Amino acid sequence: MKQCKRTKRCRQNEFSPLSRRSWLQQAGMGFGVIALNGLLSADADAASVVSAHSGKVKNPLAARLPQFAATAKSVIFLFMEGGPSHLDLFDPKPALNKLAGKQLPKSFKRPVTAMGEQESPLLACPRKWKQYGESGIWVSEWLPHIAQSVDDIAVLRGCWTNGINHAGGVCQMNTVTPLAGRPSLGSWVTYGLGSENENLPAFVVMQDDIKRTVVNGPRNWGTAFMPAAFQGTRFENGKIPIPNLSTPASIGQSRQQKKLELLNQLNRQHAATREQQSELEARILSYELAFRMQAAAPEAVDLSTETKETLDNYGLNRKETAAFGRNCLLARRLVERGVRFVQLYSGTGSQWDQHSHLEVKHPKMCRSMDQGVGTLLKDLKQRGLLDETLVVWGGEFGRTPMSEKGDGRDHNPTGFTMWMAGGGVKGGQTIGNTDELGLYAVEDKMHVQDIHTSIYHLLGLDSLKLEYLHQGRPERPTLNQGSFMKKLVTG
To answer: Which among 450, 473, 453 is positioned nearest to 463, based on CA atoms?
Structure first.
């Protein structure tokens, strides 16, 4: 039998150390990978990217100046997953109650909704509406806490989108297109402006239900073709938002530093022959951010320093309000410390999607988030943060005026409500409108591309000039479309 003649490379591999991926998976039962996933990072000097000013930057998350004078420095996006009913919250339609039980008038174009062409009768909206604040904006009985801050809010009643189902709608509201494969809004903002805190992630995502998952999952805060350094970092809901971050008591700082040095040595040995993969350098130095986070992050998420009054105001003393209230309080603490973009999901797993029993399920969802959001607006204002923090509220679409299953509403992408507050937005106004039944946006219409463009503009970014070169082609966040709604700042 002839002896196998192995190549020199083959013989060398027999004695090579574990691969970097294998080492990470096996060391410490792999918990290090979980804790540090996504924290790609403040000192990474690979992944050089083109900044908003078309200049090379060594650190992809280094704070950068906006392209023009900005009115907002950070964003808190309150995402009501499943589609809240604008007709029952911010857009009263007296004609709907008058025509309840009848078919949609023939003068209306027949909509195509998630359940197909609808011929169901119109569903009444038995809400008690009241005008609030000096502006006299109408808000329903289901949102008494948010209603107290309407003079700081611009209600956008003319929103519309293309996403007719949850997967497409959530994807579009996050990435501007119903199809997967584009970077998220938060990723583009982080790419354009970087971070003002080198010890915390620039883009943080939180859900209100740990047992459920947002439709599309991490794709909603992912970077697609851009470097992973700009993706969102998900915090858990609960007393320990960042699991596996704390160093075990048995491991001192010196020992931890030596571990990092060894890991760095192994990583650089692995990266030496893979210079074309710039992400490797960013990932190597992400561990340094995680090391710094062990000191900074616990303080940022430690709510024990807050007064009992503050905790109660956010609703942490009641089960139905505690989850989202805690996330709202954390959002305030994060933007206070320079985090650029914070996204909070209410109703994780499309819980705002009431195709039936709307009168029971919708007020429950409202109670779960209303107190936290109302307190967040007041807290930001009291601390002088609302002027520089843009707060955005809304879901992937609205609900139809027609009934479904007799006591619910279907998806309505053709007309719905969102609102913005702070960050230079002139509050106490309503912008846009839907028709007399709330089915179609008819005045000052804002497509998702316009909504995103307006957010970028308030942050000092031009969505047509913010570019990322991908495979030789300049990519822009709103696909070369979208207009800034000037009324947001002029009234």
So the answer is: 453
Instruction: Give pLDDT tens digits for 382-410.
Output: 999 999 999 999 999 999 999 999 999 99
Integer Cα distance of 209 and 244 in angstroms: 20
pLDDT confidence of residue 258: 76
Tell which CATH architecture fits domain 59-242+306-490: 3-Layer(aba) Sandwich (3.40)
Query: What pLDDT score does 17 carry?
Result: 52
State residue 408's pLDDT score.
97
AA letter at 232? G
Among candidate residues 206, 423, 422, the one with its CA nearest the CA of residue 301? 206
CA distance 351 to 359: 14
Residues 6+ apart with CB under 8 A from 17: 23, 266, 269
How confident is the model at residue 277, as a pLDDT? 55
What is the C-alpha separation between 454 and 86, in angstroms, rounded?
21
pLDDT along the chain (491 residues), means of 10: 46 48 49 43 36 50 95 98 98 97 91 64 97 98 98 98 96 97 98 93 94 95 91 85 67 71 73 60 60 76 95 97 97 97 98 97 98 98 98 98 95 98 98 98 98 98 97 96 98 91
> How do the domains of the chain map onto residue ranges?
59-242+306-490, 247-300
- What is this structure's pTM? 0.84
- Residues in CB range of 293: below 8 A, 6 or more apart: 39, 199, 200, 242, 245
For residue 262, what pLDDT is reported? 79
Map the chain to HEC letters: CCCCCCCHHHHHHCCCCCCHHHHHHHHHHHHHHHHHCCCCCCCCCCCCEECCCCCEECCCCCCCCCCCCCCCCEEEEEEECCCCCHHHCCCCCHHHHHCCCCCCCCCCCCCEECCEECCCCECCCCCCEEEECCCCEEEECCCHHHHCCHHHEEEEEEEECCCCCHHHHHHHHHHCCCCCCCCCHHHHHHHHHCCCCCCCCCEEEEECCCCCCCCCHHHHHCCCCCCHHHCCEEECCCCCCCCCCCCCCCCCHHHHHHHHHHHHHHHHHHHCCCCCCHHHHHHHHHHHHHHHHHHHHHHHCCHHHCCHHHHHHCCCCCHHHHHHHHHHHHHHHHHHCCCCEEEEEECCCCCCCCCCCHHHHHHHHHHHHHHHHHHHHHHHHHCCCCCCEEEEEECCCEEEEEEECCCEEEEECCCEEEEEECCCCCCCEEECEECCCCCCEEECCEEHHHHHHHHHHHCCCCCCCCCEEECCEEECCCCCCCCCCCHHHHC
Residue-level pLDDT at 254: 75
Residue 262: CB atoms within 10 A of its CB come to 12
